[in-house]
């Protein structure tokens, strides 16, 4: 009998020591509007904007879900779902996103939806997983707030390419410095009355000045690129076209970063030096003198050319996953879920508007 009791005691002790340590770990359920949650969400949005090579910066609109898992031996993993809105600042614009205006519903807003996992270690957040999608608001919703407002059009539409070429030729005709080349068509809208094409695009300065360049395409690009961002409208008249273009030239800066796994340093952009220029086509100038490739030079990221915006789906597809940070968290899921009913603290507040 004593032997049986001793055997049972030994069995219990062995079971305690052999149980996976992950089973004793518990998750935390935070409020979506908790300051710690918002800090993690803002770190996620910073990750988006620091790795955008094209399109427009995004800002946080709503936190939909958050769960915090312990991570051995140190730190926690924040598993989050967030909604973002597109701003009017281009990805190459050095302006901090906090100072960028959110694109309004009547301008045909674009919403982003993202899944993130962030490691919090020593009070600092770092992204270990990012997967995003984005889409423009529906035409029906735009019509509800503005019946006559133009909708987004495909970025590679021939009318958009023509309008960007004409606007760039007009800008270069009045610019005594470098001959700028078309880098990317970022946004297109067609206005019915008067018939016109509104286009936003980026440009880059080659390594030559206007008087030395016969063709901009033959110029060698600078190692430290100088970029500019332009908004232009090409209006169709009876027998002619009128172009109005406003450009902002940024201070020279390194080439735009590409999406990359966590651990690689992403350099901040240099402060901008604004040089706003309002240009019109010079008298007798050939609007087609500068022939630039449509949509984006070389299309290095493989964006579908028919899109009406730069979809975050093609930039953040789950890359940067660090399994050592998530392996322990996944072991705790079953026990954490059984810890008790979660208090419905999400989704959080809407900061701007719902698309």
Residue ranges: pLDDT <50 for 5 or more in a row?
13-22, 258-302, 320-339
**How would you state the average pLDDT, rounded?**
76
Q: Numbering strands along the chain, what is their spatial order in the largest sheet?
A: 5-6-7-8-9
The number of distinct structural domains comes to 2
Task: Give the SSE string.
Answer: HHEEEEHHEEEEEH
Overall structural class, as computed from helix and strand content, comes to: alpha+beta
Largest sheet: 5 strands, antiparallel
Report the sheet-strand fraction: 25-35%
* CATH level 1 name of the largest domain: Alpha Beta
Terminal Cα span: 72 Å
Q: What is the overall number of helices?
A: 5
Q: In terms of quaternary structure, what is this? A: single chain
Integer-rounded radius of gyration: 26 Å
What overall form do the CA principal axes indicate? globular
Number of strands: 9
- CATH topology label of the largest domain: Nuclear Transport Factor 2, Chain: A
Helix percent reads: 10-25%
Subunit structure: Alpha-2-HS glycoprotein derives from this precursor, when the connecting peptide is cleaved off. The two chains A and B are held together by a single disulfide bond.
Function: Promotes endocytosis, possesses opsonic properties and influences the mineral phase of bone. Shows affinity for calcium and barium ions.
GO molecular function: cysteine-type endopeptidase inhibitor activity
Protein name: Alpha-2-HS-glycoprotein
Question: What report would you give on this structure?
Answer:
The protein has 355 residues and is of the alpha+beta class. The protein has 2 domains: 21-141 and 311-337, Nuclear Transport Factor 2, Chain: A; 153-257 and 268-279, Nuclear Transport Factor 2, Chain: A (Roll). The protein is built from 5 helices and 9 strands; from the N terminus they run H-H-E-E-E-E-H-H-E-E-E-E-E-H. A 5-stranded antiparallel β-sheet has the order 5-6-7-8-9, with helices on one face. The longest helix has 17 residues, at 2-18. The radius of gyration is 26 Å and the shape is globular. Residues 13-22, 258-302 and 320-339 have low confidence and may be disordered.
